[in-house]
Amino acid sequence: MVDAVKAKGRGFWRWVRGNPVQTAVAVLVLAGAGATAAISASPTVPLSGSAVGYAVAPTPSTTPPSAPSGAVSHSSASSSTQTGTASATNDGTTVTATGIGGITVSQFSGNPVASPTFSATDEYFDIRVSSGNTFTSIVVKNCTLSGGNTIYWFNPSAGTSGAWQSVSGQVYSAGPPACVSFTITAVSSPSLSQLTGTVFGVGTVSIPPVTVAPSVTSISPTSGPASGGTTVTVSGTNFTGATAVDFGTTAAKSFTVASATSITAVSPAGSGTVNVTVTTPTGTSPVTSADQFTYVVPPTQGYWEATSGGDIYSFGNAPFYGSTGAIHLNQPVVGMASNPVGGGYWLVARDGGVFSFGTSHFYGSLPGLPASEQPGLPVVGMAATANGGGYWEVTSGGDVYSFGDAKFYGSTGAIHLNQPIVGIAATPGGGGYWLVARDGGIFAFGSAAFDGSLPGLPASEQPGLPVVGMAATANGGGYWEVTSGGDVYSFGDAKFYGSTGNLVLNKPVVGMAAVPGGGGYWLVAQDGGLFAFGDAAFEGSLPGLPASKQPGLPVVAMAAS
Question: What is the mean pLDDT of the chain?
Answer without folding.
Answer: 75
